[in-house]
Amino acid sequence: MIQIFTNDDVIRYVYEETSAEENLLIEDALMAEPELMSFYLDTLEVKFLMNKIERTPADSTIQNILNFSRNYTASPSV
C-alpha cells in the first residue's frame, strides 16, 4: 500500500503530534519526495523563527491593568 502524506501531516510531524509508526512512514516519505522534504525544511525554519518572536504589551495596556487592579473590589461570596 502506498501512503500519501500531506503538508498537514508534515506539520503534525514537526510539532511531534504523530505516532511512532507515523514518524517512520513520514520519514520514509520525506526521503523519497523532494517537494515534501522542501516543505518540511521550510516548516522547521518557520517554527524556529516563530519561537524567536517576543511580544510585549504597550505601557498604556500595563497601566490600564494596574489601574483596574487597584480599583477592583471583590464582591462577597454567597
Instruction: Please estimate the helix content.
Output: 55-70%
C-alpha termini separation: 64 Å
* Structural class by helix and strand composition: mainly alpha
- The chain-level mean pLDDT equals 92
Order of helices and strands: HHHH
Strand content: under 5%
Work out the number of β strands.
Answer: 0
How many DSSP H or I helices? Answer: 4
**Bulk shape:** elongated
Keywords:
78 residues; mainly alpha; 4 helices; 67% helix
Topology diagram in text:
Layout: H1 7-14, H2 20-32, H3 34-51, H4 59-71
Word description of this protein:
This protein has helices spanning 7-14, 20-32, 34-51, 59-71. The chain is an all-alpha fold and 78 residues long. Helix 1 packs across helix 3 and helix 2 crosses helix 3 (34-51). It starts with 6 loop residues before the first helix and ends in a 7-residue tail after the last helix.
Task: Provide a brief overview of the structure.
This protein is mostly helical.
